[in-house]
Amino acid sequence: MARYAMVLDTRRCIGCHSCTVACKVHNGLPVDMIYNPVTTVGPTGVYPNLHQVHIPLLCMHCANAPCVDACPTCASQKRDDGVVFVEDKMCVGCLSCVMACPYGARTLNDETGAVQKCDFCKERLDAGKKPHCVNTCHQKARIFGDLDDETSEVYKLVNSENAARLLGELNTEPYTFYIYGLEVKNP
Amino acid sequence: MSKNVDLEQEGVEVRKSACYFCHQNCGVLAYVKDGKVLAIEGDPDFPTNQGGLCCRGNIALQHLDHPERVNYPLKRVGKRGEGKWEQIPWDQAIQEIAARLNGIKDEFGAEAVATAGGTQRTDDWARRRFMNLFGSPNGFHNSHLCWIPTFMVETAIYGWCPFELDMGNSRCLILWGQNPGAAGMPEMHHITEFQSKGMKVIVIDPRFSETAAKADLWLPLRPGSDLALALAWINVIIFEGLYDQEFVANCCEGFGELADHVEQFTPEWASPLTWLTPEQIRAGAYMYAMNKPGNIQWGTSVDQIGKPAGSAMHARAILRAITGNLDAPGSDLLTGPSPDFITDEEMEANDRLPESQKPKQIGADRFKLVTWPGYSRIAEETKKVWGKAPTAEWMCEAHPPSVFRAILTERPYKVKALLVSATNPINSYGETKLVLDALRAVDFMVTCDYWMTPTAALSDYVLPIAGALERPTITSSYGCSDFLLASQRAIQPMYERRNDYNFWRDLGMATGQKEEWPWETVEDAYYHRIAPLGYDAGTYDEFVELYRFHFPEREYFKYQRQGFATPSGKVELYSSVLKDLGYPPLPPYIGPSENEVDDPELAKDFPLVLTTGGGFMPYHHSEHFQIKEVRFLRHEPYMDINPTTAAELSIEDGDWVWIETKRGRIKQKANLTQGIHPRVVYTQRGWWYPERDMRDPELGGCLESNTNVLTSTADEHCDPYSGAWANRGLLCRVYKVDASNLKGGK
Question: Which residue of A114, B52, B138, B379 pairs with A138 in a disulfide if CB–CB is 3.0 to 4.6 A?
Answer without folding.
Answer: B52
